[in-house]
Amino acid sequence: MADNSLQKNSTAFRLPALDPDFLLGDSMRGVRLQLEYEKAEERLRAWIVRSTVVVFGSARVRLGDRSAHWYEQARRFGQIVSERGGALAPHDGIRDNVITTGGGPGIMEAANRGAADAGAPSIGLNIGLPHEQEPNAYSTPGLTFQFHYFAVRKLHFAMRANALVAFPGGFGTLDELFELLTLIQTQKMPPVPVVLVDKSYWTRVINFETLAEEGMIARADLDLFSYADDAEDTWRELVKRGLQTGPRPPGYPSKSTFT
Questions:
Q1: pLDDT tens track of the chain, all 259 residues?
Q2: Measured between alpha carbons, how far is 181 from 206 in angstroms, rounded to an integer?
């Protein structure tokens, strides 16, 4: 029999699913986007996560420095939501209002840690960065994901969100906050409560009133969000703005993942 080793060792002979050069090539970008979506979706369905409370905030907040009070409040908030929102005690086996963060340090760690304090699962949606982001030690291991594409990560933040809470943060926090505010404003997602923690910080960082005065947004757009000062105040504000925390009444709309 003639030697066919060149044929068998050729990259063309590899099974497509086992060929990293092929899978990581330009032509498979759409497939990679789908894989990133599907892997997280499969796990979230397996955990029967119907809805989430998304927490954004700075990765630079640390215990022991001047920003420690934000860390402490984010941790307390994660515990409150987990105990009262349906993640710790599922209704009919379905988990609601599961704490979801970007999976990294700072405020993200604090919110995941609060959920862990309560004994509830929480989600970490990590992203591969030039200086690699390490997942914090408090998100549930089976719900700790890593994404390459920001777009797919943003989709998973938005599609189950029952509420968004933004603690003080920088570019990443502002990006995610305005992404979801824009989706709500343009009716690309259902309206959900949006609460900004620490009014003094947010009103110094962004002059929302100027946006309305200059006609860049409608004055009604200022009602898309509200402010809170601490963890308990944030929870009260979410409930006041319509966060669903108990068993769903007949006819209550499901999140898109359960339709």
A1: 899 999 999 999 999 999 999 999 999 999 999 999 999 999 999 999 999 999 999 999 999 999 999 999 999 999 999 999 999 988 888 999 999 999 999 999 999 999 999 999 999 999 988 776 799 999 999 999 999 999 999 999 999 999 999 999 999 999 999 999 999 999 999 999 999 999 999 999 999 999 999 999 999 999 999 999 999 999 999 999 999 886 555 444 455 443 3
A2: 14
> Could you tell me which residues are beta bridge partners of residue 161?
52
41-73: string of b/e by CB count within 10 Å (b at 16+)?
A: bebbeebebbbbbbbbbbbebbeeeebeebbbb
126 neighbors 144 (Cβ within 8 angstroms)? yes
CA 65 to the chain's CA centroid: 26
Pick the CATH number of 29-241 from 3.30.1360.10, 3.90.800.10, 3.30.450.20, 3.40.50.450: 3.40.50.450
48 token code pair: 């029967």
CA atoms within 13 A on the CB side of 106: 21
Residues 259, 251: Cα–Cα separation, whole Å: 13
